[in-house]
Amino acid sequence: MLVKFSEFFISLLIINTSEGIRLNITGNSFTKNKYSDSQVILAYNNVGPLMCISDCMLYKECNAVNFNRHKLECELLTVSYPGDNSVHMDGAYFTELGGWKKDKDGCTPNPCEVGQKCIPAMYNHPICLEFDTPCDVNPCLNNGVCRNKVNDYRCICPDGYSGDHCEKTPCTNVNCNYGGSCVIDGSTWRCQCPAGYHGTYCERDPCYGVSSCNNGYCVVQGSTYICQCHSCWGNHNWYSLCTCKYFMQP
């Protein structure tokens, strides 16, 4: 039965909890140099491997741990197969919670809900307390996934996105010419060009590639072009003035 106490009585119960009982952990083993890139419930340092496992048992959603021997760093994990990847990392140790055992107390089995930490207190009573993590403030943008670290977090960004908070989109630093606009297309981008313009960056205007103006010159007019003549072409008489204007329009 889950018992509710006043804050003063909770503090009294926690202070008198026997740490020795919590650390009586047996039954399984760690895999050396294996690191699981899984959801991190909580991360902290200055602990030993058995304390890391013992703490995992206090969180309903914890089913595995990463322990770093060099940093004395513990990561409490929610491993969901087959979506999680494991990598080789020197000094890392990984184990799943299944197979580990400890002496029965108020938190064995864990009576608390997801998002709560169970604290085994005096008289075999469990105390369920909500806990905060760095990722609780949802700092990652653009559907980035937040991963808790020791007193910090990091954002795992979707393909094409980057930055500390995934704030840089595929269109960041893309400049489309002639009033074109950058459009995100999955993990990449494309320039949506005004009518008559084309090219990767809309750099080609309607006159691009036009060579039919002969001695005239191409002039952009809206989404198309016209051929203009120089003030005088050929002989200096009115028969040859602007001849291309009449015969070389598109």
Explain what you see.
Strands 2-6-4-5-3 form a five-stranded antiparallel β-sheet. It has a two-stranded antiparallel sheet with strand order 1-7. The protein has a two-stranded antiparallel sheet with strand order 8-9. The protein starts with 6 loop residues before the first helix and ends with a helix. A hairpin with a 2-residue loop joins β12 and β13. The protein has 250 residues and is mainly beta. The N terminus and C terminus are likely disordered. Among the domains are: 44 residues, no CATH class; 36 residues, Laminin (Ribbon); 35 residues, Laminin, CATH 2.10.25.10; 28 residues, no CATH class. InterPro entries: EGF, EGF-like_Ca-bd_dom, EGF-like_CS, EGF-type_Asp/Asn_hydroxyl_site, NOTCH_homolog.
In short:
This protein is mainly beta and 250 residues long.
Name the features.
disordered N terminus, EGF-like domain-containing protein, Laminin, two-stranded antiparallel ribbon, 32% strand, EGF-like_Ca-bd_dom, 10% helix, calcium ion binding, disordered C terminus, repeat, 5-stranded antiparallel beta sheet, disulfide bond
**Number of helical stretches of at least 4 residues:** 4
| Share in β-strands | 25-35%
Biggest β-sheet strands, sense, barrel: 5 strands, antiparallel
User: For the largest beta sheet, what order do the strands appear in spatially?
Assistant: 2-6-4-5-3
Helix content: 10-25%
Q: How many strand elements?
A: 15
**Overall pLDDT:** 82
